[in-house]
Amino acid sequence: MEGLLTDLEVIRKDFPILERELADGHRLVYLDSANTSQKPQVVIDTMVDHLEHHNANIARAMHQLGAESTQAFEAARDKVAGFLNAPSRDEVIFTKNASEALNLVARTFPLGPGDRVVITEMEHHSNIVPWQLATERTGAELRWFGLTDDGRLDLSNIDELLTPQTKVVALTWVSNMLGTINPVAEIARRAHEVGAVVVLDASQAAPQLPIDVQAVDADFLAFTGHKVTGPTGIGVLWGRTELLDALPPFLGGGEMIATVSMEKSTWAPIPHKFEAGTPPIVEAVGLGAAIDYISHIGLDNIHAHEQAITGYLLDGLASVSGVKVLGPLDPAARGGAVAFELDGVHPHDVAQLLDSRGIAVRAGHHCAKPAHKRFGVQSSTRASSYLYTTPAEIDALIDGLEHTKNYFKVG
User: Fold this and answer.
1) Model pTM greater than 0.70?
2) What is d(CA 39, CA 8) in angstroms, rounded to the nearest whole number?
């Protein structure tokens, strides 16, 4: 199949969990990578090595282990900066996940009555709720782009939404439910014309698309480590230096200060101003190893693989009567997360029947309730691939859906 990674079987051997045998002797078919990716052995080994040989707190321990731990932690920051093509390593802030990164911006960005924040109807809750809280707190107005019937952003009213009162445009690069890849560079251009800053949620984009914050002209960007073959507990906020310098701290504590007296404190420069307390050290080290891993394979190659597998999945789903895909049907216009309905069967029942055959998918609203409401559904089943997904695993899913139909006597 054109576009598939040529060394796919070699890559699969890097992921020990893919050898897992589940109940009743079923081999694991993992199709829930949009939820969290699996981890290659090199990431696991790097984290274990750090804990076994270099474990110490960073920046404040005046001994060899402390220096080694600090060096490993800051090396991870360098790797993230390179991964994003950030102008400066100091623009990379470590958080515990993308949700915290987005909350950081929403909580600290200056807003007031008469200001407007624009989001989209396809956002993950992590890029909806923080802006709801921010506008409620400040008296600013919250507006959003709607969706077309084929699951793309409806930009027909962009001139109405993006006005001089618009201060923030926050949107996902790739939808975790619809799979839609949004035209973020064009939206950033239009937003900047009215003086707004652009906040990109790249949680689904970073695993499968080359990310260049300068090329898309973003102002802030967030992603999470566990979706790019890294560990949980580590996220990233990137922001332009001048914007980060202007924001107040999000959390107070150790390391984020320059001086502290009983009357007043002053702040450390970025990125440390936003990294209060002991950070997720070994998780950052693991994220650095994950970035090395996927960069070695190549994001262009991963993207081509995702498009090929997604196209094969869409063709397979089209062959199953009673299946309706939510979102674009063109694999070139979407990422690897494909949400769908199976007529007459609740998504939770679909997932349970598939799980009985060793096939792991997600069922529910995928933290995207407004997008589900837009399409008149309460929930959906979602299959999501990644760089280790094979055509045979897609075949197993399609066979599993036919088995589910027969089990529930539908279609």
Assistant:
1) yes
2) 15
pLDDT at 175 (0 to 100) = 98
CA neighbor of 220 nearest in space, from 289, 167, 261: 167
182 confidence band (pLDDT: 50, 70, 90): very high
Which residues are catalytic, by number? 367
Return the domain boundaries, the chain: 8-40+299-408, 44-296
Q: Which of 89, 314, 126 is closest to 227 using CA atoms?
A: 126
The class that CATH gives domain 8-40+299-408 is alpha beta
* pLDDT given at position 59: 84
pLDDT in tens, 110-146: 999 999 999 999 999 999 999 999 999 999 999 999 9
Nearest partner of 220 among 199, 236, 235, judged by Cα: 199
Quick check: do 8-40+299-408 and 44-296 share a fold?
A: no
Query: What integer best gives the mean pLDDT of the chain?
Result: 97
* Longest pairwise C-alpha distance within the chain: 72
Tell me how crowded residue 262 is: count the other CB atoms within 10 A of its CB. 5
Instruction: Quote the CA–CA distance of 30 and 25 in Å, as a whole number.
Output: 15
Third-level CATH fold of 44-296: Aspartate Aminotransferase; domain 2 (3.40.640)
